[in-house]
Amino acid sequence: MAGGGHVRPREVPRRSGKGSVKTVSAAPGQDWRATLRRQKARAVNGQPDGGYTSTFEIICRDCGDDPGWDYQDVPPRLQRIRGPYQIEIGVAEYQAHLEWHEELTSAR
Known about the structure:
Layout: E1 11-15, E2 21-25, E3 34-40, E4 43-44, E5 47-48, E6 52-60, H1 76-82, H2 87-107
Antiparallel strand pairs: 1-2, 3-6, 4-5
């Protein structure tokens, strides 16, 4: 692509059989850049302890986030992106966030 940009496949959140939301990419084999996932109840030594909450969070690698980091360990800027969100609002915010990145990419 001209200008050094890259084409990012459209990612759509889908409900898995276990009630969580996962990211499905339109391009098999592509590494995901953002996801909407169920928020951990709490972490002990970097591992979930006590299961998950009924809220969801957005993890966006393009914004500098990492799925291995706990909510309390990320800076406030990333906490604002992460949420937490109820599922309906989370899906809408996730889609808006992807569109925002697409607009940034198009503007370059």
